[in-house]
Design brief:
two-stranded parallel sheet; globular
Length: 117
């Protein structure tokens, strides 16, 4: 998590230095990109640490391989795992989620937001 936070901090700084308005910046920890499935779980578990950077956080856990590793299921059968990852991500501070199954995940997000926020 320290590596991801440091990398995002550097990217945020660079973007601002290059003239990107801060209000246009959203941070993505990159779940499923260059990490092990256990590291992806850790990213979600510790997502709230990114709030210190002061920008909205987006996550894209939808049907990712970490869900397949936990449930031993192919991508097409990971709806419930995605729902769990989305709900926990929201509870841990995600502001935006990127998903495949929009209608189902909108419902998950609404209930999660109602509980958390």
């Amino acid at each position: 998590m320290e590596e991801v936070t440091a990398s995002l901090r550097g990217s945020l700084k660079l973007a601002v230095e290059r003239g990107v308005p801060t209000e246009n910046i959203i941070l993505d920890p990159g779940i499923g990109f260059g990490k092990t499935w256990r590291q992806d779980l850790e990213l979600i578990r510790c997502l709230e640490e990114l709030k210190e950077l002061g920008r909205p956080i987006i996550v894209g856990p939808s049907r990712k391989s970490f869900i397949g590793m936990v449930l031993d299921l192919p991508a097409a059968q990971r709806l419930e795992g995605t729902a769990a990852a989305v709900a926990i991500s929201i509870a841990k501070g995600a502001d935006i989620v990127r998903v495949h199954d929009v209608q189902s995940m909108v419902r998950v997000c609404r209930v999660s937001d109602a509980i958390v926020r």
